[in-house]
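Can you give me the bound-state structure? Components:
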Amino acid sequence: MELDRRTLLCGLGGLAVGGGLFVLSGREGLAAEAAAPGKRFEQVGGDFGWQPKKLDPAECAKVAYEAYWYKGYACGYGVFYGIVGMMGEKFGTPYNQFPFTMFEFLKGGISDWGTICGALGGAAAAFALFYGRKERNTMVSDLFRWYEQTKLPIYNPGDMAQGVKGDIPGNVSGAVLCHISVSKWCYANKVEATSKKRSERCGRLTADVCSKAVEILNAKIDAGKDYKPMFAKQESVKQCGECHQTKGEETNWGKGILNCTPCHDGRQALTDKFKNHPQ
Amino acid sequence: MELDRRTLLCGLGGLAVGGGLFVLSGREGLAAEAAAPGKRFEQVGGDFGWQPKKLDPAECAKVAYEAYWYKGYACGYGVFYGIVGMMGEKFGTPYNQFPFTMFEFLKGGISDWGTICGALGGAAAAFALFYGRKERNTMVSDLFRWYEQTKLPIYNPGDMAQGVKGDIPGNVSGAVLCHISVSKWCYANKVEATSKKRSERCGRLTADVCSKAVEILNAKIDAGKDYKPMFAKQESVKQCGECHQTKGEETNWGKGILNCTPCHDGRQALTDKFKNHPQ
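Here's the bound-state model for the whole set.
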């Protein structure tokens, strides 16, 4: 057998994307080397080089819910595994080579800080395996705007519930941040943020976000560059953006397209809580 | 040469972590297969299976700044490449097999939404390749609290500046969210959020966050489970948490340990901006 210089395709960078070449060098010492990037910032498999695959939203939602509970890896892991892990189960490499547990970093809005909803973060990251920002940002905005205005959770695992069985109340958070989304739900339903019921709410919401993300991904695969946004820019962002997000305006300071209302409408929660509180 | 069933180690899951085995099967059809996870949620290389490596904070900061500007991949990519990419440059697989561009998803606080500062998100994700939440959360909190209270940016690329040369003013954001961090800096310095100067500020801040993250990672590698937190919980979080983050309290609604003050101290920005505005 002539194996010298014969190339093998395998692994995360290689098989599916044609980037990772393994070279058998020398008859005696059988050695395999993963392809190394040629120079700084060059990437095995190419930039955004993975190929997206269509999946079944309902099947992925169920797995995302399971993944949420698996060893407590939670929301970001749940959605990311529900998308990329499912591609791995169905299509093998490179998807099944991913170090999935890294997406536990999004738990509790990143190490319990309450920043981005981890489920949304996991979905946005998964999209970015396949699409650069010019194509991806519309997909992310559709997912995030759907989340802002939808009563969640919707998913009900029935007897497969791992936290609390039965109905869980829903609410519209108006926000993509974990802190606002969770705290408003807890306040509205008089549920402690540290309770099992709150965990169950987030587990079901993980399934919902995964399902919607797969729906968006499938639509993107079908439409390609003709993908049309499903949701318009929020009214608050349009209104505030007239001054705060318009080039040349003196007050063009506003970074971000989060719904403005939760933090800028003067509601009771925004009054000075450090003086004369509780009232 | 007897190659049948002989195993080769290579690729992202394998060489450094001992998980990814490649089997040459059959003399004729030379085929290489990456190891597949045995069952759902099992992971090639094991959970949090990558080994952390010590790096030079100053060297990584410089690369993070370069990475920020590389094809506009920005903050999250910058910090993640500045850590994991540098491990790849120095130690090869599995680090250099990572599909790095996926971390462009954090640009502008995730697709320009202004949620988590992308630089912080990139660092938290890098930590999670190596450590599960019980060990990682303290590292993340140290980085985030340092960011909340430090005047940034500090880094100055000198003649290597890719956006704007010279000094850039700094400020203390008090917040880990992109929207607050960027908008307050723009407001304080009368700089448009869409300007090159603002991009330069975020590029330098990317270098700063990468440097601090590497410092924390190096300290963690040295200390192991004896790693001691560098920053205490914020006063606001302690105070609000007495009721809003204490089990058994009726008002235990508050998810997250973000500094409370930017959104709950009644400052002018928090009054009702949708009525009689501008004043």
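A couple of observations. The longest strand of chain B covers residues 21-24. Residues 196-223 of chain B form the longest helix (28 residues).
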